[in-house]
Amino acid sequence: MLEVRGLTAGYGRVRVVWDVDLTVGEREIVALIGPNGAGKTTLLRALSGVLPAASGTAMLADRPLTGRSIEDIAGLGVAHVPEGRRLFPGLTVRQNLLLGAWRHRTAEIDRVLELFPQLAPRLNQLAGSLSGGEQQMCAIARGLMSRPRLMMIDELSLGLAPIIVDEIVMRLPSIAAGGTAVLLVEQDVDTALSLASRAYVLETGRIVLQGPAADLLADSRVQESYLGIPPQP
Ligand SMILES: Nc1ncnc2c1ncn2[C@@H]1O[C@H](COP(=O)(O)OP(=O)(O)OP(=O)(O)O)[C@@H](O)[C@H]1O
């Protein structure tokens, strides 16, 4: 459904991601992993239109994303949950959610509350006063308000306790099954690969490994570099 071909992007004249090919199928969860500074966030920004692509193409359900505005890309069904959540802290949870429904579907609130019932009693609370985990739930719920075909989540687990991360990631399969495929950028490689069906490893701006997540979990390069498992003799 998402088909990225030869995508190169960066900041001004500085290229950060090079010649990336990547796909996400309908209702699929795909992980994008790699070290700090590899270009994962930059790639997501290029897909959601925050940055222009220098070359290459990205298509969502056969419609081009590259060359379009952030609004058009959102309208085509791409939601971006950025690193650090980026909620409006001075607005309530309800107001933040309604901002995610930017074109339609204010009635979606009930549906996202089914996924994240913890938010229901907090609808009238300021988003800035939520716990980190609740803020991440609110950011994901906001992204779901427009019923996107693809949700890109950048560093879901950042700054959250493992038990809270587990609570949030256990919702991702239902989100995908409900028709929103997920492209997950995640430092917690074990969690990401346990959840995803396929994964890509990005290093210094290039995809260096890809395949079924189970294969990458068993790959000695992934084990040594990302899972802290010492090389086997
Ligand atoms: N606004 C910017 N202007 C110029 N260079 C930037 C900008 N944002 C990021 N970069 C550079 O692009 C490179 C890739 O950064 P990016 O944030 O995409 O990596 P990342 O894989 O998401 O890393 P992290 O896991 O640390 O967030 C880095 O060298 C970074 O310094």
Automatic annotation (TrEMBL):
<dbReference type="InterPro" id="IPR027417">
    <property type="entry name" value="P-loop_NTPase"/>
</dbReference>
<dbReference type="GO" id="GO:0005524">
    <property type="term" value="F:ATP binding"/>
</dbReference>
<dbReference type="InterPro" id="IPR003439">
    <property type="entry name" value="ABC_transporter-like_ATP-bd"/>
</dbReference>
<keyword id="KW-0067">ATP-binding</keyword>
<dbReference type="Pfam" id="PF00005">
    <property type="entry name" value="ABC_tran"/>
</dbReference>
<keyword id="KW-0029">Amino-acid transport</keyword>
<comment type="similarity">
    <text>Belongs to the ABC transporter superfamily.</text>
</comment>
<keyword id="KW-0813">Transport</keyword>
<feature type="domain" description="ABC transporter">
    <location>
        <begin position="2"/>
        <end position="229"/>
    </location>
</feature>
<dbReference type="InterPro" id="IPR003593">
    <property type="entry name" value="AAA+_ATPase"/>
</dbReference>
<keyword id="KW-0547">Nucleotide-binding</keyword>
<protein>
    <submittedName>
        <fullName>ABC transporter ATP-binding protein</fullName>
    </submittedName>
</protein>
<dbReference type="InterPro" id="IPR052156">
    <property type="entry name" value="BCAA_Transport_ATP-bd_LivF"/>
</dbReference>
